[in-house]
Amino acid sequence: MKFLKMFQRERNSPERDAAAAAAVSSLYEHGYAHLPGVLSAKECDAICADFTRYVAKHRQEADKHVMGTGRHSRLTNMHLKSNRARAAIAKPVVMKALDAFFGDRAFVATSLFFEQSSEQALHRDTPFFHTRPHNMFAGIWFALEDVHAEAGPLQYYPGGHLIEIESIQATGTDQLGEAFNHYIGRVAEEVHKRGIKPEIALIKKGDCFIWHPELPHVSPALLI
């Protein structure tokens, strides 16, 4: 019951409706949407505190996932252990935008908590998630601290979600890596051919960033 209550939708307001509508329009046109101030600083700090407590409680296992920077690698599905994370996911302006984008009621499939940049090269999320109908998902990021250029922030290619890439066939699991690399190579080729310049998501603590499943994006290496 606590889980269901935490995901109960709050009543809409004209301001939320307008923000959600603008977010959906931006998702279709540009491939992303920026919603400022969705979480308060107190809410952000509380989610981080939940992560710290979870690590302390599971210290032996957590220590296996400490990287060279001293930070931990990503934690999957923290929202299943943190009421505060679940509350963040259910923010009305975010859910309303997603409901409109999908044309159906949105739900959470999975979540990741990052202490630092994932340091991933240019890619799309579509090879990692399969839905029926196709592409019925989106990436959602809540910044729990101010984002700085040296921290390897998300870089994205506006409009790149509109680039159509031919399907790459893999007839066996041994061909998946090659097929993936070929597909991502084609995405990068088309992005550069069209002269699409990356933008950097230097968003603020409490902001929410939503991206289209086919938006090309990068998570650069840390400089700090």
Q: Going by CATH, what is the homologous superfamily?
A: q2cbj1_9rhob like domain
> What is the annotated CATH architecture?
Sandwich
**What is the alpha-carbon Rg in Å?**
18 Å
CATH level-3 fold name: Jelly Rolls
Strand order of the largest sheet: 1-7-4
CATH domain class name: Mainly Beta
Fold and architecture overview:
Keywords: Dioxygenase, Oxidoreductase. GO terms for molecular function: 2-oxoglutarate-dependent dioxygenase activity; iron ion binding. Its cofactor is Fe(2+). This protein has 224 residues and is of the alpha+beta class. The chain has helices at 2-6, 14-30, 41-57, 59-62, 83-89, 92-102, 176-193; strands at residues 32-35, 75-76, 112-113, 139-142, 155-156, 199-200, 208-211, 217-218. Helix 2 packs across helix 6. The chain is globular. The protein starts with a helix and ends in a 6-residue tail after the last strand.
Write a short abstract of this structure.
With 224 residues, the protein is of the alpha+beta class.
Features:
alpha+beta; 8 strands; 3-stranded antiparallel sheet; Jelly Rolls; 224 residues
List the helices and strands and how they pair.
Blueprint (H helix, E strand, L loop, with lengths): L1 H5 L7 H17 L1 E4 L5 H17 L1 H4 L12 E2 L6 H7 L2 H11 L9 E2 L25 E4 L12 E2 L19 H18 L5 E2 L7 E4 L5 E2 L6
Antiparallel strand pairs: 1-7, 2-3, 4-7, 5-6, 5-8
Keywords: Dioxygenase, Oxidoreductase
Pfam families: PhyH
GO molecular function: 2-oxoglutarate-dependent dioxygenase activity; iron ion binding
